Structure formats: C-alpha cells, structure tokens
Amino acid sequence: MEQHVFEALQGTLSADDTVRQNSEQALKRLELDTGFPLAAANIALADEAGLAERQAAIVQIRGYVSRHWSIGSAKYEPGPIPDQQAKAQVREKVFLLLTSANRKLRMVAAAVVANMAVYDWPDEWPQLFSQLVELLHGSHDQVQAALSVFGEWVNSDMSEQQLDQIGVLIPELRRIFGSSDYNSDTHVLAVRVFTDCIDIIAIMSDTRREFVDAHVPPILREWIDHILHAIRQPLASSNNGPAILLKTECVKALVKIVIGIPRYIGPHSPAILEALWSQLQELQEPYLHAFVYQDSAHSESATNMLVYCEDDGDANTIDNYLCGMFEWISRAAESKPVRKFFVEKSKDSGALNPTLFFKQLAASLICYAQITTDMLEDWADDMDLFVADEDEDGYRFNVRVSVQELFQSLDDVYTRPLALALGWAAQARSELANQWRNEQNGNWWLVSESALWALGLASSSAAVLSTDNAGSAPSMSSILDSDVWPLAQSSSFPYGQGRAFIFASNVAQDLPSDVATAFVGASANAVADVQLHPAVRLSAVRAISNFCRHLSADLVKPHQSQFINGLASIIPQLSEDSAHIALEALHFALRVDQDITASLEPVISEVAMGVWQRYPGDVLLTSIVIDIVEDMAGNVSAREAFSQRALPVIGAAITQATDGMVVSSGIDLLTGLLKGVPTPMPAGYTETIFPVLMQVLTASSDSEVLQSGQACLKYFVQKDAERVAQWHDENGKSGLEHIVHFIAVMLSPDASESAALFIGDLVAKVVQKCGAYIAGNDFAELVRIVTARLATAHTSSFCASNIPFYSQLVIRHPTETVSLLSSMEFGGRSGLEVVLSVWFKSYLDVQGYYNRKISAVALTRLFTLNDARINSLVVPGDLIPNAANNGKIVTRSMSRTNPDQFTQIPASAKIIKLLLAEIEMDVESTFARSGGAGLSAVIDEDELDNDGGDDGWEDDGGDGLGDTDAFGYLDDLAGSDFDDDDDEDDEDIQADPIYNQDLNEALGSFFKQAVQSDQSSFRTSIVPLLTDREQTVLSKICS
Fold it and tell me: Which segments of 615-684 does DSSP mark as H helices, in order?
C-alpha cells in the first residue's frame, strides 16, 4: 500500500499532464482503502523520502481527513471510514510532524491536527490538549506549530466543556506573548489564539457566569497591560511589518473584548483610549505623507515606515491597524468609563458640549479620511469605484469608510456634541486649507474636501452650523466662504468640486435661498455638460437627488425639466454599477411637479424602460424602475401614454423571454404599474393583462416567476375584484376561478413552500375582496386547500404567511370558521387543531403591522367565543428546563438526544400567553405609529423585572446624549424585518378599523373584560398556568 501511495504521490509532481492526472485519479482510488492515511503518514515522516513527496503526503492527509475521516464533515464523500485503531496511529504520526524541522510540513500538519481535533477531541483523543500545551514549552518552531493548531482549532464551535481548558491555555499564551525569547511572529500567533479564546468566553459568559466573573478580570489585567505595551512601542523608520502585524492583532483582541465581554473592560478603557489616541497622533503625519499628499518631501520615508511586504511578497499597509483602532473607539465611546472623554456639561446651560479631546479626535479623523493617492488612481481607472466609494453601503472598505462608520456611531450617541466637535475641527482644517491655497500648495483641496465630507456625516451639522453657537462652531456662511465656494470654482480638482455640490445639497434646507438656488441651477447644468469631469457630473447627480428631496418644490420646479433631461442623457452612459444613482435621482425629480413630469413622459419612459431592458436581472435597478413605473401610473396626465409605452415592453418580457429571471422581473414591473393605477383599474387593464399573466403562471414552474405572480395577482384582486370575477375565458371559466385554481396548484402537496411564499397574501386578499363572488361550497373548498397544505408544512415563514388568511376568516365569521375547520380532518387531526397548532407556533413570525394586529384581534375573538372545541385542545405551553442541556450551547445532535419538552395547556390559555407577549412587544411603538397609546398606556414598564445590563456599560439615559428618540432604532426595524409598505398602499387595509385602532388599548380592554367576566374560567383555569412575569403583566393591565 505504502509503495503504491508513494508512486502516486511522485506522479502528481510530474510535469507531464497525463502522468499527473493519472496519478491524481490513482490517489482518489487509493483513498477508498482505510489503510491509505497511515501509508501517507509514514511517507510524510520518512526522512529518506524526498521533501516534495513528504509535503505531498501530508497535503493528501489533510484532504483525506476532510473527505473520509468523519461522516459529520461538510466535505464528506461516501467511502469507508478508518476504525479507531487506525485513526490513533495516524494521529500519532501526524502529531510528530509538529516537531519537524521543515516549516511547511509543520504548518500543514498543524492544520491536519486541528481538523482531526474537531471530530476526535475529547472522546477519541483526550490527551491532545495536554500534548499541545506541553509543546508550548518546546523549541520556538514547536511553539509556533502548537499555536498554529490552536489557531485553527479554537473557535466559537467549541462548547462550554472547553472553557476549563481555555483557562489553562490563556496563561500559557500570555507567557509566550510577554516573553522576549520569542519573535514577533510567535507573539502574533499567541495574541490571535487569545482573541479566539475571548470569543468562546463571550459565548459562555451567561451560562458560566461565575467562572467568567472569577477568571476574566485577572486575565484582562495581565493581558491588557502587555497588549498596551505592544501598542505603545514606536515604529522604526523601516521594516515595520512584524511590529504592525502585532499591533494590528492586539487591537483586534481589544475589539473582541469590547464586543464580547464589555462588562469587564470598563476599568481598562481609559488606558486603552489613551494608548490608541497616542498612536493616532503619532501616525497621523506619516500616514498623510505616505498615502495622501502627492510629491511630499517626506513621502519616501513615511512609506518606508508604514508599508511592508508580507511573506507572499504582496505590499501591505497600516490600514488594518487604523481601522481596528477606529472600531474600538466606536464600540467603547458610549460606555460610562469613556464618556467623560467625549462630553462635558456646560456650566451655564447644562447642555452637553464636546471636550477638547473630542474636538481633537474629530480633527484627526478628518485627516485620516482624506482621499488617498490610491483612491484617486482607482477612480481614474474606473469611475464605478468612485460611485461605490461614495455609496453609504459601498462594497469597498478602507480607512475613509472606517472613519465614516466611527462618525456615524458617535452621531448615534453624541448627536449635538459631535456636530460641534466637527464644526470646530472643520474650522481648523479650513484655516489650513486657506493657508495652503494661498501658498499655491496643490493639496489644499484634499483638506477642504475631507472637512465637508465629515460635516455631511453628522445628522445635526447643518442645524448647528446655522445657529449661533457663541463661537463653539463655525457659521454656515463661513463654511461656504472658506470651503464650499473655493471647491465649487476649482475645476482643476474635480473630486473637490463634486464634494461642494454634494455638501450643498446635504444642507440645502439650511442654505440661504439664493445660495440654494445657485447650486440647484449649477447641478442642473453640470449633469448635462459632457465637457465636465465625470466625477463632477456624478456628484451633481447625487446633489439633484438631495435637492429634490429636501428643498421646496417652488425652488426646484424651475429646473425640473433640466434635471430630467440631463439625467436622461447621462443614464445611458453609465454602467450597471453606477446607473442606480442617476436613476434614483430621476425618480425623485419626477415627483416635484406632476404636470412637468407628464410633459416629459416620453423621455422618462424611454430611459426607465431602457435601463430595465439592459439590466433586467439587477435587483437594485429594477426596484428603482418599479418605483418610477408606479409613480408614472399614478400620474393622471401621464398614465395612459406611459402605459402604452411600457406595457408592450413588459408584455414581451413576460411572454417571450426564456430566462425565468427576466419573466419574474417583468411581472414585478407589471405589479408596480398596477399599484400605481387607481381603484378600480382603468377599463381594459384586467381584460387585456390578466389573461396573459394567468397563461404565463399556469405554464411556469420557476419559483421566482410564481412568487412574482402571486404578488401581482393580489393587486388584481385588490384593485379590480369585480372585473376579475366577471371576466371569463373561452371555456366560461371566470378570472376568480383561475386564481383559486392557481392557489390550489401552489398549495398542492408536492409544491415547493418557497415558491408559494406569498400565496398567503393572495388568499387573504381573496377573503377581503371576493366574498360576494365565491359560493359557499367553493369558499369551503378554498379553506380546505389551504388547511391541507398547512397540515404538512415545514417552514415557519410559509406557515406564518398563511395566518392572515385565517385571521380574516375569524374576524369576519368566527363561529362559522371554527365549525368549518372542526368538520375537516387531516391525518387524524381536525382542521381546527391543524390551524391553531400552526398559528400558536408561528404567531411571532407573522410579518407586517396590519397582519400582526389582525392576528392578535382574531385570537381575542376565538377566546371570546368560549367554544368547547377550542378549549378542549391541548397545545404546548412553556419550555420545561432540560437538566441535560442546562448551561450548554445546544448542538443539533444534543437537541435530538435531549429534545426540549413543554408543558401541555389548553388552547385558551395559550391564546392568553401569546396576547400577553404581544402587549409586551408593543407593536404600536415598534412600527412607530403616531397617536398610539403605547405600552405605557397599559402597563408601567419600569415595574417589570429587567436585566441589569452590563454593569454600567450601556448608556443609562436621562443625560441627553443623543438628540433622537430613545426608540429611534425601531424605525429601522420597522423598515426592514417588519416592512409594512404594502399596508400603506392598500386602501382596504387603510379603511379597516382594526388598522386604525391602538392594539395596546384594545388588548388592555380585552384582558380587563376577560378577567372581570371570568371568561373560560379565567381565574381558576388560566391564571394558574401563567408564569410569574405573565401574571405581573396581567395584574398591571387590570389594576
């Protein structure tokens, strides 16, 4: 066996392609013999074998372990698995390679040992950990090998069983890190493994709190002292690669600590901040000379200091180190131990003002955020990169983006103080820019550009600059004079000129009207001027978006035609990666004045549909085109002409395209058109478009096409239910019958749940709009179809998407719905049991403001029925603590061995539990509804038990740090996972009293009535089944 393996390994090294390929195939066949890994291990250990063959052998073992060592491997390939005796022999031999004199053999062996450890430790290889710790006391090469194993092996997948071993490992790592006997590479490995240990400690900090509380503080005291010592070491004039790598790894460790176990870092935070601030000051000038200022006399020496080559020969820089420091500051800035460095209270007004440190930090960050020579070179080669770098969610990460994230984080915590600090810093930078401009120093524009860029990041900058701050910040007029106008007039510096446009548009509402008007006109001219640098034109495009959004229509309207024509001229010139900014600007521009938009309908139609025809698969561009289509369809004066141009394009895509993605995208455009037209739809829409759509959906099996079709059909039902019901095909089948048949096909047992993800919305809309057009038996059949599919459903998202259908039924006909469901049977369960089981399990997964509300209201109706058929159902209640899994991270195998158990309670009690949870989640606040009573109208939140947090880490509130709503983050939440845009577009939903009532008040009244009337034996049958917290909430509601 060994000889065969050796010959095959030799063959893989041959220069002859045929020999090499045959040998590789031979190795694949040999791998199917369980003796293969031992033979390969013997070759790797054999000194008499050639080094190339030995290295090839250990590489083969690495692949073998991934493919054949354990059936649990993600890369497992069918074949025999070695028995434990054979594995033990292989492990022993591979471990010996960790002491090899050859570095490549050691490093690959380390990867193999780490991979084996994932499957074999601790059960089959219990001595591994102690063996590696022992190796940490060996030669320098052996220490590196052991650290490499730990570096591959120690990760967040480890369970709490490894926490004790980590407690042994960390002191060894600290010993190595703190010893001058080891080189910088070894120190880097030690810190890297320590960082991985922090990840595990963070995961276990709740389940093993006592252990963590006892061990982490002394660990951090020792480690942070050594980390800060390494960070504070000054860089030499050259050859700083090892030092920069070590500093970078140290900062990564600090970031992991502040993210993972923040409660323990507080006492060290001031010292860390001081050390990082010292580094930022020390590196600022070298950074600018090395990467920003062209033709600097100090560029060469600064480059030698901050640029280094890695082992593979690639040049690397100090960027990762800087970004790490910025991230730590971002994470730590809101903590109490650090807060005093950022803000102080005014003795006169009591308002929070930035400290001198905060101002100096802002000035330093503006310096680091300057455009680098590499960025300019990239942009010169590819303007798409310029667009990407200017996008808030761009895909490129660099120092400037890292500074942006830091400023945005500080803006969340210190809104007004940041604006004041930036104003102070911008003024200082402006003075330098003016000095350099007067001295004919060509770098002046970089200074001004970065100052305006930074001011544009703070949400309240414009307001602060536009008010009298007693000299604490510059005025808007001074910023305009010192930075904006000089940049706007400097055609030699197009990126600076473009920044002037963008800044002016960002603060447009606070500009003097004559200045705003001047920039609006300049932007309109610039976007259409082909002689201008592309950066200026693209910046003008972004400015147009802002002007159309932020300024009054009276200021923008005189230039709307010029905006639209200019944008229409530049869009065809842009690539797929850049067209979105101009298309979005066009969308905002056409909303300024409906009549002007209608007069330019041919231009708008051509450019919008042209973009979609070129890039139908681009999700971002298609979404913007859909918005434009919807707006044009909603424009009374443009609708008919636009539809005549758009529908042939959409129709051709839907009926003729062979690519399902194009068909799906075309249906999405059609949906946008339907959303924009009035209710009922104009004559001819349903009769012309609906049959074509149904024909496409009937013939398609593409999931994306079917999903898009479900959304589109929902709008046909919503907007034109009567015509859909009245339309009949040549066989006399009505449009509504076609829709019900489509629903039945999508909900057939063999249909994909993902393909039917939006069928619930369609079915719920049919209930809302088509009750008068569906016979009783047909309606019952529709309920049976949905319920039958729900009985076999697996995914929570699919289940949750169908709950609104039953919510609508219950709200309209509660008794009849319960009776109908009770009369059905699916696999030995009644339809009522099927529906309520899914409803209870997926209740919290229901998405959307309206759907959440009708689901809750429907449950109150079911409870109020006090129906024996509901009360007799027994369903899972509260989780029963599992002693076998207590305090552990539960893996899939552990959950199968010791599955979670639940109490069994009546369905009526489950309803009460869900509604109490609903009232605590406070849907009205989550969706930021104005005028709602809010949770405070029902219960006093302060009286409920709350977690104490992270020992003073979190902001304790009440000091006015942020000038935003304390629950402002929920706006973002409501705009993402709980997106309810469709609610706003749905006239039926808007007219539903449930949509407009306050759910908290409604639930409060429900609970009071249920308790007072003792519905379903509330006091004796339900209250005893509630948890202490649930009883507390109920008591507060009813008090």
Answer: 619-634, 639-656, 660-676
